From TrEMBL:
This is Glycosyl transferase, family 2. Keywords: Glycosyltransferase, Transferase. Belongs to the glycosyltransferase 2 family. Residues 213-373, 472-647 form the Glycosyltransferase 2-like domain. InterPro entries: Glyco_trans_2-like, Glycosyltransf_2, Nucleotide-diphossugar_trans. GO terms for molecular function: glycosyltransferase activity. SUPFAM superfamilies: Nucleotide-diphospho-sugar transferases (SSF53448). Pfam families: Glycos_transf_2 (PF00535). Gene3D superfamilies: Spore Coat Polysaccharide Biosynthesis Protein SpsA, Chain A. It comes from the Bacteria. It comes from Acidothermus cellulolyticus (strain ATCC 43068 / DSM 8971 / 11B). The lineage of its organism: Bacteria, Bacillati, Actinomycetota, Actinomycetes, Acidothermales.
Amino acid sequence: MQLVPVTGVRQAPESPEWEAVDIDPQFLLAGHIPSGWVEFRMRAGSRQLMRMRLYLDRGAGFHEADCIELGTVATVRPVEQRAVFFLPPDTCRLRLDPMERPGRFTFDDVTVRRVHRFELPARALYRRWLSLPGSTIRRTTVLLSELRALIGPDGLRAPRVLATPGYPPDVAPSPAELARQYTVWIRRSEARAADQKRLRATIAGLRRTPTISVLVPVHNAAERWLRRCIDSVLAQSYPYWQLCLADDASSAPHVRQVLEEYAARDARITAIFRPVNGHISAASNSALDAAQGDFIALLDHDDELAPDALLHVAALLNEHPDADMIYSDEDKINEDGVRQEPFFKPDWSPELLLSHMYTCHLGVYRTELVRRIGGFRLGFEGSQDYDLVLRLTEQTDRIYHIPRVLYHWRRHPGSAAASADAKPYAYAAAHRAIREALHRRGAVATVEEITEARGNFRVHYAVSNQPLISIVVAAPNTGVIDPDCIRALFDRTAYPNIEVIVVHDGRNDEQLRDLLTFWHTQEPKRFRVESLRTPARRSRLMNHGADCASGDLLVFLHGDVAVGTADWLDEMAGYALREEIGAVGPVLLRPDGTIDHAGFVLGIAGGIGHPFRGFPAHHPGYFNRLLIPSNVAAVSSTCLMVRCQAFHAAGGFDDELSGAIGDADFCLRLRQRGHRTVLLPYVRLCHYAPEPEVEKTAPRQMSLLRRRWATYVDHDPYYNPNLTRTRSDYSLRI
């Protein structure tokens, strides 16, 4: 097809290249447009990152909802891009947007040809089936599970890319791309959920219909937003609710008028008028005093509930009647009613909660438990709900997450949703709430606020008595030990009480022998060598090193990793020494300054994903996940700390597994024993040579991991199901 420049692009002078002159270059594709399943091919290259998108005009112009991601290119030499997708028959024009920034690029050989709907997918599936180990039944089972991860709720006819061979490393989606994705996600994911017949059937099928009291503290709310807030409760598809509106002595006369009007309209609405302003904690307690429901839900006076919010809560309570706390995903809504910035949250993550009030909206809590712990505490205004949740979760572990956007947080000038600096007192209250929570729990720790991300914190646990830490450096036949790795352990590590154990397979390597001899001479009390005298996987060498270790804590470290900051062991040990924690890992950086490892996500493309891989080191991550401690399904044994007792109780590493698969298996066995895995993203080491063995062994070993841990591979508890399952960049599943 012929490229016809439309806007923002021109032929580069004296060059075969094109040049984007602004942030939105566009081409029209001139030529015959087939319909149905098509194969799109082109060659593209650029010094700049190219994130290519194809827009469809289906008779009403080009819209974000009809857009297909074609992938990214970041190589100067042109490479072939190929994608297979479904073109609706009413498509009359195609627009190709090559990138989102000025720069030069190459485009040629653009073709769009019709294919049989099963031609290319069938070939790819057959090749994948042949590569899998085991019997015919086993191969087929694994392949079907991988397909479930790749196919979203709209099925194969969704206008999406099915195959992009040679897809480059993940790159963070731009804000514009995230906004586009969310527009598409809303249209596709929420349309069927609004089916009224199905909603009525859901309500009729509920065995339990608990009353949910919605608490709304009100103070001088703008009439427009106050009405929208109350109307969103009246519009709930679930009818068994009570709305408790507590006016905190508002000076604006319209507030009383509006509250009295709605209270007279519906008997389920209770209006309370406080005679004296006491701020939001006191007003919330007044609403709590009026609550008659089994559960309370918190709603701010200018925000909105999704129409089916309480129905989804009731449905979960029917499935889990023991629930004490329920929270959902959320987004922001601007003054024009446009929804943006969705926050798709993980399931219950205690370390993340101590770093950020991530559960926030919509929060639903058992009324009796809230009253038992004293309701909302005065003095924590702005973070009174954070303080409440920290205290409540010390009393129960019956906490459930609904992975749906049930709450719309109003964004307008002066709101916390619009600016992180709108309510500075809230951050001081949050800081205090965390400190008091740690004190109640008997933890000796300090709390650091992240200045570049207000409302986010890091907890640093103190390490008492400096227990011995055994650092196990495994050197299989395919592995190397960089001299700087060992030197940094002794010269650039502040923690003094360490022993370094190098475990190798007995190979006759003169360079390795000289290195080990040198350090045995330099550090005779803190350095030793163990040999299995037989070829072995890294997992077996690590297990042998653990058996030989004397420390209370074990650190498994690859020989091609260099220590960064001097306090890396202190930071990791503070977490690893806690009984509820299992494995602790840092972020690993590549020599070029990009991220190599930041924990694992299970179930990406049916396997194990590397979130944020390829992102620049300074990137904050999805909702600041690269700034603050959080729980992950697994971390890499490239650098992993664990208590010696917990390691042996879990059975160590599986000798038959290696790389990311072996690490995931080990961390899941720790989880099975009640120990959480933690990523500390501010602890950073440099990984010089990422292991190739993961890719080599993945097809054979992944089926074993799936047999053992199918529940977690199908649903990683720390990765929201609304996020993509084909990449690791935290983009949306559309």
